[in-house]
Amino acid sequence: MTASAVGRRGRRPGRPDTRAAILAAARGRFASAGFGGTTIRAIAADAGVDAALVHHYFGSKDDLFVAALELPVDPRAVMAERVIGTSGGNAEGAGERLLRAFLSVWDDPEVQPGLLAIVRRVMEPGGDKLISEGFLPVVLVPLGEALGIDHPEQRMPLVASQVIGLILVRYLVRLEPVASWDHERLVTAYAPTLQRYFTGPLPA
Amino acid sequence: MTASAVGRRGRRPGRPDTRAAILAAARGRFASAGFGGTTIRAIAADAGVDAALVHHYFGSKDDLFVAALELPVDPRAVMAERVIGTSGGNAEGAGERLLRAFLSVWDDPEVQPGLLAIVRRVMEPGGDKLISEGFLPVVLVPLGEALGIDHPEQRMPLVASQVIGLILVRYLVRLEPVASWDHERLVTAYAPTLQRYFTGPLPA
Question: Which of residues 152-181 of B touch A (CB under 8 A)?
Answer without folding.
Answer: 153-154, 157-158, 160-166, 168-170, 172-178, 181
